[in-house]
Specification:
This protein has 102 residues and is mainly α. It has two domains: 53 residues; 45 residues. It has three helices and no strands. The termini are far apart. The mean pLDDT is 81.
């Protein structure tokens, strides 16, 4: 009879330990699920921001840079003329591009 009581008590302890481990694992899984949900939301947000961005090819980037340079050149030239021809710019955008290509 004593051995049966010992075995029963041992089974109760093991069941209690199993319940505790199960509770901890359940809490851990819930934490992981929250983390995964948070990461998914962040990725969705990043993806939606990326959708708003346009990819630009190298030739398009070069064309945009040339246009910006030309505008700056003309604005600086106009400023120099308005200051009485004291512009520090020499040549033209085309002549600079031609000399850089050589």
């Amino acid at each position: 009879m004593r051995e049966l009581e010992k075995a029963t008590e041992q089974s109760r302890r093991e069941m209690s330990e199993l319940k505790d481990r199960t509770r901890r694992q359940t809490a851990l899984m819930e934490d992981v699920q929250r983390d995964v949900k948070h990461v998914r939301e962040e990725l969705t947000s990043m993806k939606s921001r990326e959708i708003g961005l346009e990819a630009v090819t190298r030739s398009e980037a070069e064309r945009i840079a040339e246009q910006a340079f030309d505008r700056l050149w003309h604005n600086q030239s106009a400023l120099g003329r308005s200051l009485g021809g004291r512009s520090t710019l020499r040549g033209s955008p085309a002549s600079i591009q031609h000399s850089e290509a050589m």
